[in-house]
Design goal:
266 residues; mainly alpha; DNA polymerase, domain 1; three-stranded antiparallel β-sheet; 11 helices; 3 strands
């Protein structure tokens, strides 16, 4: 049986879809909120290149259509992370439709997805991935496994992004000197050039900044689980390797527990 969907959810779905498509869309989107929900809705509303104008006829496509959609997006210059995110959204939609018995089988079940270079989340971001959620400037990115997450931007980071975008309203957040999307190699060259200008003798790469962020977060006392999530580490032991002070007796749990028990005994 199809799960009950509030009428308010159905009202947000464009009427050009069939009733079954609208129910599947509303049911899937009801499981998300904020910018993540908006990103999923946008992915499912857009037509694949070469298709008829307007919303994609979701229950009428085949595997070849979905793969052609990905190839067309790449031809348009979309980042592979964006292509993979949209394919993941589409696959999730069809999985939901099959589970709710709205569709017999998923055309996305065996779709070949493009390889994504996950070292370049930032350079792969488009302006459409920026947003505002509960007072936070945010950026929606695709992590390993196609997981879509929304991360907050520190004020200085948001300001730097605003300067990089200027008056543009679409396209990549970061562009090279020739106007095309900045790739990870270009980002690496910028980092190395900046390090030389600062007279830093040590080799500095974009990954150096990632390492410094994780180390600084642990040194600042951010809980290991939160740092693990921010770094997208599947195993907490990977995060712990960055913890320079993990052998410090000053941070031993003995003192923390003793202080807690002493306070509870008062």
């Amino acid at each position: 049986m199809t799960a009950a969907v509030p009428s308010a959810e159905l009202a947000t779905i464009q009427p050009v879809f069939t009733d079954a498509e609208r129910v599947a869309l509303a049911g899937l989107l009801a499981g998300y909120r904020g910018l993540t929900r908006e990103a999923h809705a946008l992915d499912l509303r857009q037509s694949p290149p070469g298709a008829v104008p307007g919303p994609w006829p979701l229950f009428a496509v085949r595997r070849a259509n979905i793969e052609g959609f990905a190839r067309g997006m790449e031809a348009w210059g979309r980042a592979r992370a964006t292509v993979t995110r949209r394919q993941s959204t589409i696959a999730g939609f069809y999985k939901y439709a099959v589970e709710e018995e709205l569709l017999g089988s998923s055309p996305a079940a065996h779709v070949r997805r493009p390889r994504v270079d996950y070292e370049s989340h930032a350079v792969g971001a488009d302006i459409e991935h920026l947003g505002l959620e509960r007072g936070h400037r945010t950026l929606t990115i695709t992590r390993k496994g196609g997981k879509i997450v929304t991360i907050p931007l520190a004020p200085r980071t948001a300001r730097a992004i605003d300067l990089a975008i200027g008056e543009r309203t679409e396209g990549p957040v970061f562009r090279a000197a020739d106007g095309r999307r900045l790739d990870r190699h270009g980002a690496g060259r910028i980092v190395r050039k900046t390090a030389r200008r600062a007279r830093i003798a040590k080799t500095v790469t974009p990954h150096t900044f990632r390492h410094a962020f994780i180390t600084a977060a642990l040194d600042a006392g951010v809980p290991l689980r939160d740092v693990q999530e921010a770094a997208s580490h599947a195993d907490p032991r990977t995060t712990m390797r960055y913890d320079r002070a993990r052998g410090s007796l000053d941070r031993h749990a003995t003192y923390i527990v003793a202080a807690y028990l002493a306070g509870a005994a008062r």
